[in-house]
Amino acid sequence: MLRFLTSGESHGQALIAIIDGIPAGLPIDIAAIRNEMHRRQQGYGRGNRQKIEKDDAELIGGVRHGVTTGAPVALMIKNRDFENWQNVMSSAPVDLTDPAVQEQFAKKSIEKFRPGHADLAGTLKFHQTDIRNVLERASARETAARVAVGAVCEQLLRAFGVTIASHVRSVGPIAVPANKINGDTIDLAELMSLVDASEMFCADAETTDSMRDHVKEAWQEGDSVGGVVEVLVDGLPVGLGSYTQWDERLDGQLAQAVMSIQAMKAVEIGDGVDAASAPGSEVHDALFPAQPDPGSENVGLPFRRATNHAGGIEGGMTNGSRLRLRAYMKPIPTMRKGLPSVSFPGLTADTAHYERSDVCAVPAASVVVKAMTSFVLARAMLNKFGSDSMDDIRASVGAFKQYCAKPFAAASTILSEFDRPEMELE
Are 411 and 309 within one domain? Predict the structure, then answer.
């Protein structure tokens, strides 16, 4: 079972990620991991923290000479800003009588809850006397480790012909017109080229400008904005996930993984919300026989669809169509103008705490959502096709694709075996 854990605080020494279950024999491109981490730090609307940190994932276990060994893969991302927080975030006890320590604690103290953040519930849940103990781990800084994990998983998926892309569909009320970027038909390489040219990771230049203006206006007002990101995946085999148990359904796993990302409040697969108000005849994707291409070396499917309202998942399983997922991010709860709140521990009326933060992190979120989607899909691949070595998985994937190309012919062959006289029961 592929799984991962992260550890570390926003202003601590480092973030750590451990991925357990990566098969042996996967070449790891560290430059590709670093590129994804760099992308997470980009986007108009990010805070000054991104000018300090230059995220760089360091492989410290599970990889030898650039290839995975089958052991847990460990990655470390150092926090450069820790230099300014050594006393406040020290793992060892500090001398609280030292004037320098007292000064740093006073500058970094948090005495007011932020509505919309984990501050209040986390402080009560863990019986904390310092809100920072909650803030430091609840912070979206943790997603740097998730992006490193997702980048490794994306390399595993690419080894089996799976490609994944993400982009920003809206920021606040500013959205890409549906007739400009069609998530079911746009080429993923073309999409990523357009995204990389945009400050907002938006595939439409005109919408990018409008999004940027909206973020600038929010910054001037001391406010924050959210938005919607979309992830698209091609090349997934049929049958990842399962209908047999509730926790095996792939759409449920994707939803949980995406909703675990800080500030995400909703997930949509395929037509999602719109499907609830449409008749069945306009929601479900009709099937048609596919004509095989005699000149093609690719093993295709013996059916096709003219639509993809389901977003590539039916009955909790991939169905061979492009996977299309959208994630809805709320505005960040840390705002310069602040909301009415209460102090801690006095619980007197006050204004919410403000700590250096982003105005808009939707472009960065598109990278994180892609990373978590990559993890879930990589786990589903390994659950179906094995997880010890890349050689074994390649053989299993190849055999399954051959079967899916002619599933009914294969079934007929099996039935014909039982029609033989020597197979009859006495």
Answer: no
